[in-house]
Amino acid sequence: MPTLQAVRPPTNDTEERLLDKALTLFADKGYEAASVREIIEATGVTRPVLYYYCSSKEDLFQRLVHWKHDAAYRELGKIVNETSGCANRLRAILRGSFTFCSADPRVPRVMFQTTFGPHIPGISEFMAEVGGLRFAIVQQVMQDGVDAGELLGGDAPSLALIFCCLMDQQINVLSRLPHPKRRLTPELADSMVDVFLNGVGSGKRTVPKVPPFQGNS
Amino acid sequence: MPTLQAVRPPTNDTEERLLDKALTLFADKGYEAASVREIIEATGVTRPVLYYYCSSKEDLFQRLVHWKHDAAYRELGKIVNETSGCANRLRAILRGSFTFCSADPRVPRVMFQTTFGPHIPGISEFMAEVGGLRFAIVQQVMQDGVDAGELLGGDAPSLALIFCCLMDQQINVLSRLPHPKRRLTPELADSMVDVFLNGVGSGKRTVPKVPPFQGNS
DNA sequence: TGAAACCTAACGACCGTTAAGTAGGTATAT
DNA sequence: ATATACCTACTTAACGGTCGTTAGGTTTCA
User: Fold this and answer.
1) Closest Cβ–Cβ partner in A112, A118, A208 for B200
2) Of A19, B9, B63, B139, which is the most exposed, with the fewest CB atoms less than 10 Å away?
3) CA distance linking residue A184 with residue A174, whole number of Å
4) Which residues contact A172 (CB under 8 A, 6 or more apart)?
5) Cβ–Cβ < 8 Å for B107, B101
6) Interior/surface letters B51-87, b for 16+ CB within 10 angstroms, e for the rest
7) Cβ pair A77, A1 in contact under 8 A
8) Nearest residue to A113 via CA among B117, B151, B172, B103
9) Below-70 pLDDT ranges, chain B
């Protein structure tokens, strides 16, 4: 599992409130539309205070993502390592992601908006890196599943892409609707894994032939 | 099938080039980051020319989306009506969407970025409406499939959401990578339908129980 | 003659960022 | 012991730049 660069979490109360208000505003209006003026106003400090703790708006954003994401990412890797069987691992990933996202729906809103929204110099590259970490975990699980004969129909990267599409877009859509906590339930997580593994068709079962997926060729 | 409001397509050459350059810039940089100054500069006209043809930047965007989207949407509805059987209809929707998106990958980039990206007043509401039209078609196909006993495991809205997640996020991801035309192939479309209907697991088949999905409660 | 298609030149508002200064605590040197 | 230096945590007040938009005038062609 790739390592994460260590980033100092907020030590000061002012700094933490700054990051928290930034999270709210980024989630509501997006990175670009949320101005540093709004952020410092919501926090109740002046502008140079923000630049005292963060070297720029981009640095503020990255610090914020590390703060909310890193512990959960390490937890995800640990859960996968402690679980055996492809189906169980996928359930663990999905339940874990749903739990993480419903605990604070502002986080997935910010992350998916910046990952899949318009390109923002500096931010998009950073989020691609963060998203790649998660994708690598899923891809490894798929590889193990293919090797063990538990998965059919495509190679590991293709299957990982499909699974991540299902997972991410569900979270993206549901975390934007009212009451995301009532929607991102463990029952839904488990049923999504069932759909991925068994499908919803009633007809005779055939094995899909998903073409290979190459990231950048 | 819900009707679309009639919007005058570009009659003038200058107007069409304006919309086309706007499409390029919106796809590359997003709605907010693409300025009217860049758009008029790429077109080779002055700023008041843009405001001669469009009443505002928002109007420019909506005109652009209607221009590229409306004919394809009507085509999609027609294809579904002329196709029978749930699996065939889903294949037709996915193949049609892939063809439409690979014909001009700028279009899905703009549409998904504004639909699933940060909220932009005026734009987000408009795109939710446009996206709702497509979702309604998929949902009706699912309803027919459930009624005919061709689909199991959930109600029509839930299944439609899952299918749209698969479809939209695949298009979203692949249309942002290099060579989207080589990626959004009919073979991939068909295999995605197979995954949706049959799954990729090798184990004993069980029927998923997807919890009901309610749009706004 | 008049409407369609375009121009120059500015408007006010907001953006991210920073220079320069200060209150208050704490460590250090005499 | 007390003056000095230094640090953290903040302040006021601007900087230069980009934004969407428009008032008002000009060309072109039917």
Assistant:
1) A208
2) B9
3) 7
4) A108, A112, A116, B116
5) yes
6) eebbeebeebbbbbbbbbbbebbeebbeebeebeebb
7) yes
8) B117
9) 1-6, 217
The answer to whether A208 contacts B194, with C-beta atoms less than 8 Å apart, is: yes
Burial degree of A184 (CB within 10 A; 0-12, 13-18, 19+): buried
pLDDT score at A12 = 84
pLDDT tens-place string over residues B154-174: 999 999 999 999 999 999 999
User: In angstroms, rounded to a whole number, what is the distance separating the alpha carbons of residues B79 and B101?
Assistant: 16
Which nucleotides of strand C lie under 7 Å from a protein CB? Answer: 5-10, 14-20
pLDDT computed for residue A9 by the predictor:
77
Q: Helix H segments across chain B? A: 13-29, 36-43, 47-53, 57-82, 86-103, 106-116, 123-147, 156-176, 180-183, 186-198
- Asked if A152 contacts B200 with a C-beta cutoff of 8 angstroms, the reply is yes
Q: Is the CB of B81 under 7 A from strand C?
A: no
pLDDT of residue B107: 97
Which chain A residues are within 8 Å of B203, Cβ to Cβ?
87, 150, 197
Q: Which residues contact A211 (CB under 8 A, 6 or more apart)?
A: A154, A158, B185, B187, B188, B191
Cα–Cα separations (whole angstroms), residue A10 to A20, B101, B186? 10, 44, 49
Could you tell me where the DSSP H helices lie in A148-207? 156-174, 180-183, 186-198
Shortest CA distance from A106: residue in chain B: B118
Tell me the CA–C1' distance in angstroms for A39 and D12: 19
Cβ-Cβ contacts under 8 Å for B10 (sequence gap 6 or more): B16, B18, B19, B53, B63, B67
Q: What is the pLDDT of residue A11?
A: 75
- A33 with B32: CB under 8 angstroms? yes
Determine the residue of chain A that is closest to B209 in CA distance. Answer: A191
Give chain A positions within 8 Å (CB) of B172: 116
Any strand C atom closer than 7 Å to A47 CB: yes
Q: Is the CB of A88 under 7 A from strand D?
A: no
Q: ∠B135-B137-B140 over CA atoms, to 5°? A: 105
Tens digits of residue pLDDT in A133-170 = 999 999 999 999 999 999 998 999 999 999 999 999 99
Mean pLDDT of A167-194: 96
Q: Which two tokens stand for residue B128?
A: 């939710």
- Quickly give A118 CA vs D13 C1' distance in Å: 35
